[in-house]
Structure formats: C-alpha cells, structure tokens
Amino acid sequence: MAMLVVKEGKAFPHTVSVLVDNDPGVLARVIGLFSGRGYNIESLTVSEVDEEAHLSRITIVTSGTLQVIEQIKAQLERLIPVHRVADLTLEGPSVERELALVKVAGTGEKRLEAMRLADIFRARVLDATPESFVFELTGTSDKIGAFVSLMRRVGLVEIACTGVAAIKRGPEAL
Amino acid sequence: MSSPQKTMTGAEIVLQALVDQKVEVVFGYPGGAVLPIYDALFSRKDIRHILVRHEQGGAHAAEGYARTTGKPGVLIVTSGPGATNAVTGLADALMDSIPLICISGQVATHLIGNDAFQEADTVGITRSCTKHNWLVKSTEDLARTMHEAFYVATHGRPGPVVIDIPKDVQIASAPYQSPNRIGHRSYKPQVKGDMEKIRDAVLQAAKAEKPIIYSGGGVINSGPEASHLLRDLVRLTGFPITSTLMGLGAYPASGEHWLGMLGMHGAYEANMAMHECDFMLCVGARFDDRVTGRLDAFSPDSYKVHVDIDSSSINKNILVDKAIVGDCAHVLEDMIRIWKTHAHKTNSAALQKWRARIAQWKKRDCFAYKQKGGGAAIKPQHAIKRLYELTKDRDAYITTEVGQHQMWAAQYYRFEEPYRWMTSGGLGTMGYGLPAAIGVQVARPKGLVIDIAGEASVMMTIQELSTAVQHKLPIKLFIINNRWMGMVRQWQELMHGERYSHSYSDALPDFAKLAESFGCKGLRAEKPAELDAKIQEMIDTDGPVVLECLVEQTENCYPMIPSGAAHNEILLGPEDEDAVSPSEQGKAMV
C-alpha cells in the first residue's frame, strides 16, 4: 500500500500567521489560493503591522489534516509577496484573541440579565440607550461563542467580530 | 546599457528594460491601450517583434521560444480582450513552469473601474494563472517592476508573470533604473538541497535492489547542466530511468538505461518498473495524476526520494520518504559527488536480476503495430515513426497539439537532447503546437521545426499560419488527420459505451488548399506507399508546409492505464479492452 496523502479524515483547526508585503491585491492572492485549492477559512484577520517596512500580518484559522495544513503552508510560502508563514498551532504555545461588538436590545428584566451576564464575562459597555447595549468583549473564540449564545436569550440583535489575532508566547518574533 | 538616471517615457522604459534583460524577440498584437509601447517600438532596431494573429497564439509562441532557449518568452497584448485572449497561454505556462513575461496595456489610471472601453480587471483575471502579476500605477515604479518581473519569472520554479500598464503610465516620464543584481525582498527560492538528506538519499540508492529514476520537466527547466548531471548519475549507478512527458530528452532515448516515458500512455516496462521498484528517485517531476494512476496502488513497495525546487509539489499527491527541496542541477551534483567520494557501489547482483526482469517486460514490445500495405490506411503510429526516421539526423524540433497524436509523438519520436520537445503537458491545451512551433522557429531559424498535430487541435489556432508566412518561418505542420477528436473518441469508446457524442470532426477544410490560401505549401498523404516521399518533400521545401496525413480513423492509443487504475493494470491493446470496467470513481476522473 502506497503512502497516501490524507485529505479527508480528522481535521483540526490551525492558526496560521502570514507576514506579507502591504500591497494591493495581497489579500486577494491569499484568499484566492484558499478558494482555488479548496481549503477553507474559518477566520481571517489582516492589518498593517510595520508601516516603515511596509508589512501586513494575516492571521488565518483553517482546518485540515496535518498533510493538508502542510500543503497550505507550502502554497502560501511560494506566493511572491509572502515573507514568512508560521503554523502557530504546531510551532509551540501561542495566545489568541478576538474582539466582538455585541448589540442587545430589550427592556426590564431582559436588559438587566444582559448586563449581569456581560459583567460575568468582563465585557465593556460601549454604548447604551434605554432599550439597548453595545458590549465589547475580548477573548478566545470559545469565550466569544459562549457569550454570544447567552446573549441570544436576552435580545441579541447584531454582532461584529474581528476574527482571530494570534502571536507566539515567549521572546521570539515571527 | 543606459545611464541609471536617464528620464524616459513609460513606453521607452518598458523597451529599455527588455533590452537590458537581454530580450531579442517579443511576440505581440497591438491595440489601443498599448499604442505608446508600439510607437516606441517603431523606431527600435534592437527588438524584433513577431506579429501574431491571436493573443493565445502569441502566448504559446512565447512559450515555444522559452522552451527551446531556456530564456523567458515575452508577449505584448492590449487591454481587455487582448489580455483575456492570453489567459489560456498564461495558464498553460503556469502548469508547465515556463518563464513568460506578458506585458498588457490597461486603460488610463483615472478610468480604471469605470467599465471603460476594452477595460478588464487583468490582474484579477490572471491572478490564479500567473506566478505573480503587477498593476503599475506610476511610471516611477515601472523600471523596477519590469526587472522584478524577470527575476520572478526565471527564479525558483519558473512561470508566467503579467505586468499590466495603464496607458497614461506608458506616456508619462520617469527616471530609468538599470537592473540590479540584488535579490528579491521576499522571494528567495532555495536552490541548494539539504546535505544531510542528500546523503541519506544516496545511501538508500546504494542499497537499492530494484531502483528507478523518474525524471521530469524540472530537469529541463533547471538548464542544460541538469541534463548532463542526470546522464552522469545514470552512468554512475546504472539505474534504469523513465521520464514524464515534460522531461523527454533530458536522458537520451538511445541511452542503454532508458525505459521510455511513463504514465497513462507510457511504456509498459516503465510503468511496471515503477510499480515494482524498491527505490525511486523522482527528480523535477510532481507525481501528476497522469503519471501515478490510482494513488493508493502507486509504487507500493518503494523508498521514495523527491527532488523539487517547489516545496508545495512535495507530499501533494504522494507521501515520500525523503524530500529534498532544491534545484535539480545542484542536488544532482551533490548526489554524484557524495556517491563518488564515498565510493558507493550498487548491489550489482540484484541490479542484474532487476534488469533481467525489465528485459522481460520489454519483450512485450508494447509499441508494436501492424502497418498493412497497398490500399490500407496509414497507421498514425507509422506516420510518426516514419517522420522520426526521416528527420532524426537533422536539427529537428518537435511541438505537438493535444490528444492521441501527442501521445503517439511522445511514444514514437525519440528525443536525444533537451529543448527539442515542446508540448502542452499540464494544461493539455489544444491549439498549442502551431504557435509554439512559430516561437521555436524564431529562436532556431535554421532548425527543422515540426508541429505534430491533430486535425481538431490545429483548427483552434490555424490562423497562425499567416504569422509563419509573414515572418518567413519555415515551420512544418504534420497533421495526423483521423477526422475525430481522437482521444475523446477513444474515451467514449472505452468508458462511455461507444456513444460518440459530438467528437466527430465534421466539415473539415481541405488542409492542403487551406495551406495554399495562406501562402504555405500544402501536401496530402493518403496511402502508406506515398508517406515517405511526402514527408521528404515537406522537409525539402524551403518555407512553411502543411502535410495532411489521412490515417486509420479508429486507431486507439496504447498502452493505456485507464483513469482510476494502477500501473500494473495497464492495457496493452484492443485485446485488453474487455478488461475495462471503469469504477465510478475512475469515470469521474479526467
């Protein structure tokens, strides 16, 4: 039996950081690579991180078998404006956060309950009206997911979420 | 070279950059958005421009030029349809790793996004069919981008690039910068292989009892040195060697260790040896589905070493035991040196047994065919065999279209040297061969350049005959005419219950007359007895010739590994056809 590249089977989420030139079209290249080769994107964030060096950092959460993730890494690495690719999930401990803005509407007991839950989650109130709140919550994807599902019962109307930003623990840079 | 700070218009910068990058020939087609470049070209004597008849033809011609010279091919097209017409050629070059520089005109920067006349989002459209592309929004960036484009197209795994230049950027002026030798900011392909891994690979090679070398187009792309080194390695080890369609010529077909091409229509002995080997050295090939057949039955018992400059080719289809990222020539050189300094010896007793086993497979004579004489039709295999016999002692270059004739050409034409075989491998582009032959002939003015064509394929770019006539390029079109889209017909016969849905080439032109109307010589061969004389006449004619060979209509291409089958399930001829019972999975494969 030949050794097969396993494309189906147990897939795990991986957080991949990609350091790229901050040029127009770079994000399209990265996204096009994922859609063109049939990889999925669970979360994606991008922002300039070094104005002088003209660099942006893209953080992608994707899932696949180890071999698929290896392929994704190799495919990303050969894009011309890509400087470095790191699989933070494999390369050692990292911290991840995302930020969510959560709007709930309601009055009376519902409104109080929303406030109490927000307190427990250490969410901040960014905006308040007599019949609504906008909460800001920072945390792991799990924490934000848990918060959002609780808010559904107390009048959730809208969510804006950044997606995951991640960085390796310890003194080393990407 | 010009002084580093001389101010020029964008159009002049483009041409100066081409000259500084040692470009002698460009292929192209003018139009509104490249008029400034064509205007600057008007007075230049140092760049030869080959006017094509369609931008796809221009792209394939540039590919042909690149593949026979090893230098990047250059194409100039206008915006909108000019660029979209070039897309097939770009995708073809990407799949076959051919360095190609496509300069496209674009509407003026202030019009971009306005749905202006002949506007298309060229960088958007070509993003996934180029290695990289640029939209140059300022003349200041143009010289640097041009030089960067050449660097990217030719370094690492070669490929096509597009530089999209708005018309106002071509007209405005800026200082010109000469190419500098400093590397790229982010793109730094690894050319030297990891020595530890190379040492391990060589150690495994020395232990092998049933070794095989499986080489590919990467060896040819790496440069002439890689082919020399490959030959040295085969001589040193005595390992049998097979090659992909793309790699033909790197090792000579007359070499004593040559097994023939492998894969779907490869030699029986090559495929069987791949299946049974215990050590496989894959150099510059990518385990393409046309090569591997059914993945879970591919070479089940071998230790696999994969040498490739593109790390994304490694472990993509087949997991290998030793992956060496690097340029073929560098890695082969290191392998040979290590082999020699450690005075490695092969297991000669085992190797002898292995050769005897291969000789058994060879005895099956998988490319045998029977050509009847008299009034019988010409067998397509015979037509190509005769073409080979009558041209082998000449300075011949072969291009092909795509389909049965392409496979027969790969099987019956024997290549002794690299850079003489230009065929669309990865993308499988019908219409490739005629324009590619034009590009080859431009680079090899004294060469005998022959497009082995099928009548259906060649109809896709037949207008390029006009290019050949205009530029006095004496290409030869050798059309294997079976009046079918032969490979489609073959698959319909074998996999779709002989329902020949829309695969008959109806209403074909009289190719000889068509050739004459273009100003070429037109010839036709209908019977085996006249074949040699017609081929000879074609060769002896000074100028472009179309020789239409009417062949046996329903001949199938064998051997064949049906899609979804393994190497050892290869069909050798019509007598094996009953064995075809394509699995649903196999049927779904292309």
Task: Summarize the topology.
The complex is a heterodimer of chains A (174) and B (590).
Chain A: E1 12-21, H1 26-36, E2 43-50, E3 55-64, H2 66-77, E4 82-87, E5 94-105, H3 109-120, E6 124-129, E7 132-139, H4 141-152, E8 156-161, E9 165-168
Antiparallel strand pairs in A: 1-3, 1-4, 2-3, 5-7, 5-8, 5-9, 6-7
Chain B: E1 7-9, H1 10-20, E2 25-28, H2 35-42, E3 48-51, H3 55-69, E4 73-77, H4 81-95, E5 100-106, H5 122-126, E6 132-135, H6 142-154, E7 160-166, H7 167-171, E8 173-175, H8 195-207, E9 211-215, H9 217-221, H10 224-237, E10 241-243, E11 258-261, H11 268-276, E12 279-283, H12 289-292, E13 303-308, E14 322-325, H13 328-341, H14 348-362, H15 380-391, E15 396-400, H16 404-412, E16 421-422, H17 433-443, E17 448-454, H18 455-458, H19 465-470, E18 476-481, H20 486-495, H21 511-518, E19 521-525, H22 528-540, E20 545-550, H23 584-588
Helix pairs in contact in B: 1-2, 1-6, 3-4, 3-17, 8-13, 10-13, 11-14, 15-16, 15-22
